[in-house]
Write a structure and sequence with these properties.
By secondary structure, this protein is of the alpha+beta class. It has a single domain (10-202), classed as Aminopeptidase (3-Layer(aba) Sandwich), CATH 3.40.630.30. Helices cover 42% and strands 18% of the residues. It has helices spanning 15-25, 30-35, 43-60, 87-101, 105-117, 142-157, 170-178, and strands at residues 10-11, 64-67, 73-78, 127-135, 162-167, 182-183, 188-189, 196-202. Strands 1, 2, 3, 4, 5, 6, 7 and 8 form an eight-stranded mixed beta sheet that branches. The radius of gyration is 16 Å and the shape is globular.
């Protein structure tokens, strides 16, 4: 599915490299700082564990990861209808997170419940869910980011797929909007004064240029 005119993109199953990019990119993200506060001494290890378990889970259940050759930028997404999870699959995922994260799991659980329970009701059927889109702050260039964004446009136009994602900060929301994505639904509110998460949507009839 990656555009053949963009040879720098490739499917990736290199969990370690994907996780490194995500942990670096979201280290100072407000949602990740709420889940794993800065004062936690093992914060980077907790971030790595969360992303490792999550990426393994998504790739095992129909998800895909695209990356540039050195994983300067990564895109993790699930196609329409995926992941098609049984109750046992979800329980196994949660147990792995709880075992790896210990006391930090409570905020992860609250985060996952908020995403599920407060997702926009007006979403149409058959959309791609972009779980993570990130570039490594120590490796990437603007060209890597533009390539990633081009991949998203290709999903919309060449494959005629709608895209849903959640922006974890106002700064990222502005980037999504510049790309033509639109806000949809209400903010997803995390408990205990946590930051808002902003649902976004793009389709072939929208403003993506």
């Amino acid at each position: 599915m990656p555009d053949q005119s963009l040879p720098r993109w490739q499917y990736s199953h290199d969990i370690e490299a994907i996780v490194e990019t995500l942990s670096e990119a979201f280290f100072h993200d407000p949602v990740m700082e709420w889940i794993f506060p800065q004062e936690i001494s093992h914060r980077r290890r907790a971030l790595d564990s969360f992303y490792t378990i999550s990426i393994e889970h998504f790739l095992r259940h129909g998800g895909h990861a695209w990356a540039t050759p050195e994983h300067e930028a990564v895109l993790v997404w699930t196609p329409p209808g995926e992941p098609n999870l049984s109750e046992a699959d979800t329980e196994a995922y949660n147990r792995r997170l709880e075992h790896a994260l210990g006391g930090e799991y409570k905020r992860v659980e609250a985060f996952l419940k908020a995403l599920e329970q407060q997702a926009p009701q007006e979403l149409p059927d058959g959309y791609v869910h972009v779980m993570f889109a990130a570039r490594h702050p120590g490796k990437s260039t603007s060209a890597d980011w533009q390539t990633l964004m081009h991949a998203l446009r290709e999903m919309v136009f060449r494959e005629s797929l709608d895209i849903y994602a959640e922006s974890s900060s106002l700064q990222n929301l502005r980037i999504w909007k510049r790309l033509g994505f639109q806000r949809i639904g209400q903010e997803i509110r995390l408990p205990d004064g946590g930051p808002d998460i902003y649902p976004i949507f793009g389709n072939v009839n929208g403003r993506i240029k």
